[in-house]
Amino acid sequence: MIIISSNNSSAKMTLIIDGNYSEDIDSLTQEKADPNPLTEISKNIPTLYPNEQNAGLGSTHQVTIGLVKQNEAAAFEEIIRLIIFDNDFERAAQFIQMFIVDEEERFEIPKLTAAHTPWKLAELIRACGIVDQNKIFEILKISAASFADGIGMRIRNCGIKDQNMIFEILKISAFLGSDVTVEIIGGGLVDQNRIFELFKIAAAQDGLGISRFIANPLFCQGYGISDEKQFQILQISLGQIASQALESGDSYQLIEFVRDEIAPRQEKPFKLFAKACEMEINVETGDLLEAFSQLKEFIVQFGASDKVLSSLEVIFKKHTSLQQQKDLLWFGTWVMFHFGLQSSPLSDEEMIYLLNCILNAIDPHLRSLATNALIASYNNPEKMVVLKSLMGQVDHEDERLYLIVLFSSLAGIKPETTKKICDELPKAKYKDAKQMALVNELLCVLYKSSSLSIKEKELLLGLIFNGPEKGERESNPDFNTRLDVYRKNRQNWITAAHSLLYFGQERILQKVTNTKILVQKWELFMGKTFYIRDDLLDQFIPTFASSKRYPNGLLIYATRLQTLSDDLMPFLGKFVNAVLDGTYPEIRYSFTDNPHLEAVFSGNEELLKTWKTSLPIKIDGLESESYTIEETDDWEDLMLIGTEVDSSCIHILSDPVYNQALLAPLLDGKIRAMIAREKSSKKILGRVLMRFLPDEKNNRVLFADKPYTRKWVDANRMHKHLLEGCKQKAKRMAAPLTISAYRHLSAERYPYVLKSLGGPVPREAVDALDGVHTEYGIYTIPESYLLT
Predict the structure, then answer these.
(1) What's the pLDDT at 338?
(2) Taking the CB of the first residue and of the last residue of the chain, which one, N or C, has fewer CB atoms within 10 A?
(3) Helix, strand, coil in percent for the chain, rounding step 5
């Protein structure tokens, strides 16, 4: 999970509290599943004051020593406050000695604060007089789950000697990505078998880091890492790096790893990996036919039959887009990296339809999750039997259902429940990949959830997919009307369950007994998450969840954004509230929190009005095209400005490290868009982001950044039309038009540096500067070209 590798400790703790962990360790080590090291302690981690420092404290902020003497409960709460918020351990220790007599209450104090006080933990345990090793063990597990780094030294300082206890604590820190070499030494773990297990867990989190240690013979000798154990650790490392490369679409690190760590080794599996790496180079350089030929050679070594080979040929030719063909080759490489010379899905005739279904998924994130799930199935023989049995009951002509079968079998869902879900998704109604994507993601997050029991998952699915039955005397039109209402409502129920699961709110779902409560709980949670006013909640689903252009696009974006940082959610909430209450046009161009707009437009209301007003674009010959050229600042256009075109980093499905920059077009009024809108669907076929900027001489300039288009359009012709629209806007603004580098245009360099003076959101993507820029919209564009 992305957030596990985050440096945000509170984010880590939230996930642990909600128990939202998967079997990733076990699938990567290819061993029988062990209990997740975080599952047991999740119930012990405190949720006291979860959101803000003052939450739940009430009058105890004003507690005086006199009041404390009269009220032991108030003393207890004041001690917690002193530790968590004031970091006043000396005073807290005094209060403990003066007022807390009960031994169990003294145990509760470090338990409740262990997630907040890593470096004072030993001191606090001593102040509470705790000497029982089992109690200290429980406290340290909580501490490790919240602050993985440095846990080894905390183990030593707290006096834990038992090797079993040390190992269990270090398992948690290894799972969260700590430096196991440091923690093993600090914690005093000496058992070499347990050290080996820790390295396997760590390799599944940071393959590159661990492989560098494994490459050192002195290191391996010191820890008793034999050649066989090195091989196992490197296999896990390779799987993790390949997985990361697949998700990011960047194979550079993988290729370097294979060249440096794998290729020099002589064992046959490593030679195979090195060859697979050569195939990846062909993928990246665009020689896909050669790469596909290599893929077929590889899977023959796995025992692939002629039927498998011919089926893969069909899949490769069917997916004609460059990206889909790359994904097939990526998939093949990743599976080979993971399985080595063992049995592989690529050599299994029964898996062909599922492979095709995975490649058909429109969301690259979902493709990655499905690939992980497939690998996990192969590592669990019982679930593989269930998967293949269910696949045999699905019509091969209806491959869209195979991902549901895959995720539900891994989630432990009963076959009859899975079949009912499939029956409730008629092809005529659910042939749209976007609608199926949401159902698939719901089943996927249920599979990944370790907090919900199988029974609770079954109950939730039963609520959502419990379709109406036709009455004996009910007419077909009446029943079809009820059925349509149910299906429309079901989309909302799926959205509610899906987003609550994505936000780690299993506890809410555990209390849901009907769909009405489900939607109510969801609206309440989303209201808090997006900071939505109570009077606007009932408009949320009709506005955002029911979008015809991209249903639930905002929620999908939000679920990814929140994995990066909770600090970004208020910005998205500002956008949501403004759309719902009709103030979006005003807040987008407000000078509040936007020094750039204030500097450029202050005292010139007419110029600002001209900038805010969408100009009708007139281009000769455009009426014969399938699109119109328009200027826009419509909220839905801007939300999908990177999604309805290809290869944009601000696609709502992109890595949140990059697509967090979508907040800039949504909220920063210095940015507007010139778009090519498809006449039939009203979707965006091409776009250019325009920025109204001053140069270093304080001349006002309209800057047009890199154009993006959808595949299968005449890109050069569309670029020409988009730039013509930008020219007309520049003329209206009485400003020169400068552009980013357009290879098919010749233009003289603009003599001055352009400036952005600060905006309302933390990050903004500027293609002319090759990336995402921080400092709240403060940057310069040193090079641009004068078009008008």
Answers:
(1) 56
(2) N
(3) 60, 5, 30
Q: Which residue has the tokens 């105890």?
A: 60
Measured N-to-C along each axis, helices 476-502 and 515-529 cross at an angle, to the nearest 10 degrees, of 40
Question: Which residues neighbour 216 within 8 Å (Cβ) at sequence distance 6 or greater?
Answer: none
3-state secondary structure (DSSP) of residue 631: strand
d(CA 490, CA 469): 15
How crowded is residue 324: how many other Cβ atoms within 10 Å of its Cβ? 16
User: What's the burial of 231, exposed, middle or buried (CB within 10 Å: 0-12/13-18/19+)?
Assistant: middle
Listing DSSP states for 224-242 in one string gives T--HHHHHHHHHHHHHHHH
User: Phi and psi for 242 in degrees, rounded to 5?
Assistant: -65, -40
Residue 595 · residue 757 · CB < 8 Å: yes
User: What's the CA gap between 312 and 331, in Å, rounded?
Assistant: 12
Q: Measured between alpha carbons, how far is 53 from 540 in angstroms, rounded to an integer? A: 29
Local confidence band at 27 (pLDDT 50, 70, 90 cut-offs): very low
Q: CA 166, CA 178: separation in Å to the nearest integer? A: 15
688 contact partners, CB below 8 Å, separation of at least 6: 673, 674, 675, 704, 705, 706, 707, 708, 722, 723, 725, 726
Inter-CA distances, 564 with 9, 116, 559, 660, 723, Å: 12, 20, 9, 9, 35
Neighbours of 392 (CB within 10 A): 10
Express each pLDDT in 713-757 by its tens digit: 888 899 999 999 999 999 999 999 999 865 556 678 899 999 999
Token pair listed for 235: 């296999």
Question: Taking 60 as the threshold, does the pLDDT of residue 346 lie above it?
Answer: yes
More confident residue, 510 or 437: 510
At CA 243, angle to CA 238 and CA 249, rounded to 5?
Answer: 120
Q: pTM above 0.70?
A: no
Distances (CA, A) of 526 to 502, 523, 529, 635, 786: 12, 5, 5, 19, 46
Residue 412's region, left for phi above 0, alpha for psi from -120 to 50, else beta, is left
Q: Assign 181 to helix, strand or coil.
A: helix
Report the alpha-carbon distance of residue 764 to residue 79 in Å, rounded. 43
Per-residue confidence (pLDDT) for residue 271, from 0 to 100: 60
Is the pLDDT reported for residue 302 higher than 80? no
pLDDT, tens digit (0-9, with 9 covering 90-100), for 350-396: 888 888 788 777 666 677 778 778 878 887 888 888 998 988 887 76
Please tell me the distance from the alpha carbon of residue 51 to that of residue 14, in angstroms, as a whole number: 10
Q: Which residues of 649-673 are buried (b: 16+ CB within 10 A; e: fewer)?
A: bbbbbbbbebbbbbbbbbbbbbbbb
Reduce the DSSP state of residue 778 to 3 states and report it. strand
Average confidence (pLDDT) over 577-590: 94
CA 211 vs CA 240, 525, 673: distances in Å = 11, 42, 46
